[in-house]
Design a protein that fits this description.
alpha/beta
Length: 301
């Protein structure tokens, strides 16, 4: 069994066709079929069911697929890490994160990275929840992840401090002139909710927080992305709780930010499946430096 055979197998699965896979791989169809057959002999059974106009996975193929994906991704990750560590032109660093961190924290760090490491390109993948982020990193889709600190992670984790959660209201809201607000004061308000809302004790953070304040939030709109929810709040649809990193970028878009009294925070971290080396370690250091330079109020210190 070889890595190339697994790459051929994955391409056939993705294209559902030996013909299209051969074209993408720049090999002849007989050569591709020969390599896939050799792979099937090595695992002891058929991985693919050949149909007249398509190809689909057998039960053995479905079991083999995620392991082949991980093996191929890990090999590519090793190659990227080696090239990036050497500062090779054309090297890449693959990052995984959640949307709020991508639009809030990462732009400034990415700009500094491009200035200091012009030979290593960044490839960013965004996910809708911390659960999806951790699951995809475990599958090897990226070299490292940036997001809420994982509670159960076997690989290296580098804490980045704590990110504040704030309330976004329209600029003409009666509370807009205040710097802080108690959550109980928001009991009668309409809320905009986001699918990326972090969980606390198994509940979306807003449900949990409002429950401790003695009320259930009245949801009027649900969005996929935090940035969409903030724009909805600015338009006067309702109010939203959002990470300060992301929400502060929206100040000036007809909205105001309110700190909660007492403040709400969530820990952020960089984490990976393997020890951070080369470009991955350098990016983690850059993130830590960026966070350390922010005001103490931001980190909750």
């Amino acid at each position: 069994m070889s890595l190339r055979q697994m790459e051929y197998f994955l391409t056939v699965v993705e294209e559902s066709s030996f013909t299209r896979a051969a074209e993408l791989l720049h090999v002849t169809q007989p050569a591709l079929s020969h390599q896939v057959k050799a792979l099937e002999r090595s695992v002891g059974g058929e991985l693919l069911e050949r149909l007249p106009r398509a190809v689909r996975l057998t039960a053995m193929g479905r079991a083999f697929l995620p392991h082949a994906q991980l093996a191929v991704r890990s090999a590519r990750q090793a190659q990227r890490a080696a090239r990036a560590a050497a500062g090779a032109v054309g090297g890449e660093l693959h990052l995984a994160t959640v949307h709020a961190v991508a639009v809030g924290m990462l732009p400034a760090v990415a700009a500094r990275w491009r200035a200091e490491h012009p030979g290593v390109a960044l490839v960013l993948r965004e996910y809708g929840s911390t659960e999806a982020l951790e699951e995809q990193l475990e599958r090897g889709v990226a070299d490292l992840a940036v997001g809420p600190e994982p509670k159960e992670w076997t690989g290296p984790v580098v804490p980045l401090g704590r990110e504040e959660l704030v309330v976004v209201v329209p600029f003409d809201d009666p509370l807009a002139g205040r710097g802080a607000v108690r959550l109980a004061e928001l009991a009668g308000r309409d809320w905009i909710r986001c699918a990326m809302e972090p969980l606390v004790q198994g509940q979306p953070v807003l449900d949990w927080a409002c429950g401790t304040a003695g009320f259930t939030p009245r949801t009027v709109v649900r969005t996929e992305h935090t940035s969409t929810a903030v724009r909805m709040a600015a338009a006067g649809v309702g109010i939203v709780m959002a990470p300060a990193h992301m929400a502060r970028g929206a100040v000036g878009e007809d909205c105001a930010l309110l700190t909660l009294d007492p403040p709400w925070h969530r820990p952020l971290a960089v984490f990976s499946r393997v020890p951070l080396t080369g470009a991955a370690a350098a990016f983690a250091r850059l993130l830590a430096q960026h966070e350390a330079a922010l005001p103490a109020a931001h980190t909750g210190e």
